[in-house]
Amino acid sequence: MIEEPNFDFKYELALYKSFAARLSLAILLIVAGVFLVVTLSIIYFQQEQLKEKTASKAKAQLHDAVMQMRLANAEALVKRDTLTTQEFIRILETVQPYKDSFTLMADDSGELLFTSNDTILTLPLAQKKEIMTAVVSKTAGMEEIFKGSDLSLLLHEPVQDCRLFVALVCSRVDILSTYGPILLYGVIYFIVGLLALFLFSTFTIYRMVAPLHLFAQSARNIAGGNLDTPLPEIHSEDELLQLRDSFEYMQTSLKQYIKDLQITTASKERLLSELLIAHDIQMGMIPTTFPQRHDLDLYASMVPAKEVGGDLYDFIIEGDQLSFIIGDVAGKGVPASLYMAVTRTLFRNLAGNYQSAANIVREMNHAIASTNDSFVFVTLFVGVLDMKTHHLNYCNAAHNAPVLLPVNGDCRLLDVEVNLPVGVEDRYHYEDQQMDFPLGTSLLLYTDGLTEATYVSRNGSRRLFGEARMLYDLEIKRDASAQEIVDYLNHHVAIFGDGTEQCDDITLLFLRHGTDGIQHYPVSAPNHILLKNEMTEISRVKSFFFSVCREYGIDDELGKSLNLALEEWVANVINYAYQKGSRGHIDITAEMNEDLLRLVIKDSGVPFDPTKHGEADVRSELGDRPIGGLGIFLIRSIMDDFSYQRTEDGYNIVTLIKHIIHN
């Protein structure tokens, strides 16, 4: 049996707000309306019979009076006597079938001789004449007079042999007195039937909605996370049983889905953790410390498209010889990162033993191709620069041609042989290319992630960053330092993409032979980085900030602490400033004025003022603390000051300030 919920007025009221209740009540009203129409129709169509029934008693009395008058007249004729009008009136006065009825008597000329009620005398002449015309008709009959609210019946009959006509008027009250009980009983039956129908509908609605109410309660419990909520028992073979089976199937499916989701989530978290570790290992393999020499200005960066990437760069300086490499492993992810590590290790082992770039590439190709069962190949550009003789020896293995910035002349792509990628053909013979590389000459090495950086507009059209834009940027920044040029190109690519997720790693290596004439920014000039609102961008924050620390001479231990505060706020913006799935940017500017470090973080997300956030409760038990606020507490603990501003054009600007004490 279905469980019956306890009586509750609010619950009962809710029953009539349900769809089933409204439907049942609508049917109830329709049935009641039909019943009322049928009742009134029966009364209407039976009114003639009812009027005949009403007039039957009056007709009998009137006819008896007429017969008495004829009999009295006959007796008078036999006795050769004459009856007076008063004797006829006396007989007519005995006719009183109803309380409000009255009689008339007229002669054959239509003159009214007698009336027991003066109502007819007050009528208009035309109406009075119409009534008298009906009275003096030659045959007995019944007419409706005083139509409207004062409807009455006129029964008339001639008194033969006397040239007299008599009539009886039955008023509206007399008419209704006959079928009034019928109307009363009809109304009573209607009300009783309506009440019975209402009670039956209420009971039906209650039985119909009660299990639905229990189902709704179970659904709320399931939505609250209690998947073991018992469902009401249904024994009827109808839609309710199907609904219960559907709920039961939903419970089972949700349990299995959550179980599978927990397994999948744990697996993804473990994989993500491993990928982050692999990312840190990979980023730790590439050099982040660059030489400080009067005859060389060198800087490089790598921005993976995923947690780990397949690009690489490296350099080795032995005396006056600089060996450098940039490469791109075919593919992405973990397999490409493994080949990247192998390729870099081979370069470092070979670069010190050869002065020929082609020999380095040939040996690397032999080592990779001889064990390349998965047919993974690597595009490379390897160069060997003798900074004493100003001579560059290089070899290209299907890589993008570097950009040459001569001392005099426009930027252009370096003339390179295409050759095969490393790992394709073990016996392929790579040849050197030579050129003079005088002081002031610069070279930009890059992977195709730079020129193929993509912008996707809202309507789906795509544009590439391209070689022309790259050459233009280098031309206008040619006198800047290596780090400034690399940072500028990365910043421009991020602005160009406008939040579009890039599909390839972007790796840059810029070198200039000699540092004379380079226009360095002053110490107070800002350093920028533009991030996408994705958690994978956190690694770029660390790389960016430690380059800032190196530039401004900030101690490593202090730099780690400050980077923690910076990453905390950037993560807060990524998680909460933008709606999920929407594009957004985070612009970070680092400034150093004397001993004051300012980190300015700008975003266009929802407004949030951290300075108005209350102090975090760090003394209570962990389970009793409210969620949130620890990140702001951490920033306040590390930084000396921080402020917030919401600009008129819709930007949030948070400024973190720290006083740096140099030893």
Number of strands: 22
Poorly predicted ranges (pLDDT <50, ≥5 residues)?
Answer: 1-16, 517-526, 620-628
Specify Rg, calculated over alpha carbons.
54 Å
Strand neighbour order, sheet with most strands: 2-1-5-4-3
**Biggest sheet, open or closed, and with what strands and sense?**
5 strands, antiparallel
Topology readout:
Blueprint: H1 9-15, H2 19-45, H3 47-78, H4 85-92, E1 102-107, E2 112-115, H5 125-135, E3 141-145, E4 152-159, E5 164-170, H6 172-223, H7 239-285, E6 296-303, E7 311-318, E8 321-329, H8 333-351, H9 357-369, E9 378-386, E10 391-397, E11 403-405, E12 412-413, E13 433-436, E14 442-446, H10 448-451, E15 454-456, E16 462-464, H11 466-476, H12 482-497, E17 506-513, E18 527-532, H13 538-552, H14 556-576, E19 585-593, E20 596-603, H15 630-638, E21 641-646, E22 652-659
Overview of the molecule:
It contains 15 helices and 22 strands. It is α+β, with helices and mostly antiparallel strands. α2 packs antiparallel against α6, α8 packs across α9 and α13 runs antiparallel to α14.
Keyword list:
44% helix; 5-stranded antiparallel beta sheet; alpha+beta; 15 helices
Question: Can you summarize this structure?
Answer:
This protein is α+β, with helices and mostly antiparallel strands.
